[in-house]
Amino acid sequence: MLIGLRKDHGINTGNINMARGAGRYNPISRRGISEQTEKELLTVVVPAEKADEIFKYIYDVAEIGEPHHGIIFQSDLLCSSAYEIPRDIAEEKY
Question: What is the mean pLDDT of residues 18-31?
Fold first, then answer.
């Protein structure tokens, strides 16, 4: 997904954080025993005018509409820092 965000949408930065969690409909969690698994959280900052386009892209690629494929949310930012890769650095091959 990160490669697609870069190639198709020009997004060069994103953060991936790890968390633990249990699904709401996990049979074990219904018995009060929470089996936790590692989860990945992806955060990207995009201009407001591209927000809906990027939201749809992530939703489609991650198949969020399918059971157990995670959640997605979008919110406004008060501020963020601009990040730009120096122009004189060679692009890494995929």
Answer: 66
> How many domains does the structure of the chain reveal?
1
- Whether residue 78 lies inside any domain: the answer is no
Over range 65-90, report the average pLDDT: 82
Tens-place pLDDT, residues 3-21: 889 899 988 888 888 887 7
94 within some domain: no
CA 71 – CA 11 distance, rounded (Å): 21
